[in-house]
């Protein structure tokens, strides 16, 4: 398996430490280093897809795995019934910081309202 060098690929390869909650041949899930809620888990493909703009039909299985895993982890973490939020940030206006596609699973408390346009 060839993995390009992003901070997340190093986590996937266990080259830097992260609290990995799940890993299989397609995806890895680990706790966010800067959580914005009591539960904040990132789910990433094991190979580099930089942004959601780079997704193609061949990625259907991996994207399905990411969503299904988000639902499963939410149950495992005990936040499914009360609810949670799933977010994918894309590029500059989406405030993407790490250019390795990832899904944020966020919950464990009543979250703020959805972010909308803000003049800054
Ligand atoms: P985004 O803005 O969508 O690209 O979010 C990137 C997230 O990645 C951000 O919430 C912080 C998290 N993050 C960045 N570097 C690391 C790291 O080295 N370890 C872990 N566990 N999370 C990281």
From TrEMBL:
Cited SUPFAM superfamilies: HIT-like
Keywords: Hydrolase
Active-site residue list: 102
Superkingdom of origin: Bacteria
HIT domain residues: 7-116
Record motif Histidine triad motif, residues: 100-104
PROSITE patterns, A to Z: HIT_1, HIT_2
GO molecular function: hydrolase activity
This enzyme's EC code(s): 3.9.1.-
Protein name in UniProt: Purine nucleoside phosphoramidase
């Amino acid at each position: 398996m060839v993995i390009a060098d992003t901070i997340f690929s190093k986590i996937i390869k266990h080259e830097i430490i992260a609290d990995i909650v799940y890993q299989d041949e397609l995806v890895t899930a680990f706790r966010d280093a800067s959580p914005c809620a009591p539960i904040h888990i990132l789910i990433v493909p094991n190979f580099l897809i930089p942004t959601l703009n780079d997704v193609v039909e061949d990625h259907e299985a991996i994207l399905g795995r990411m969503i299904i895993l988000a639902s499963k982890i939410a149950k495992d973490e005990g936040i499914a019934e009360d609810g949670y939020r799933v977010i994918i940030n894309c590029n500059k206006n989406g405030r993407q910081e790490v250019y390795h596609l990832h899904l944020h699973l966020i919950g464990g408390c009543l979250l703020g309202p959805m972010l909308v346009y803000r003049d800054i």
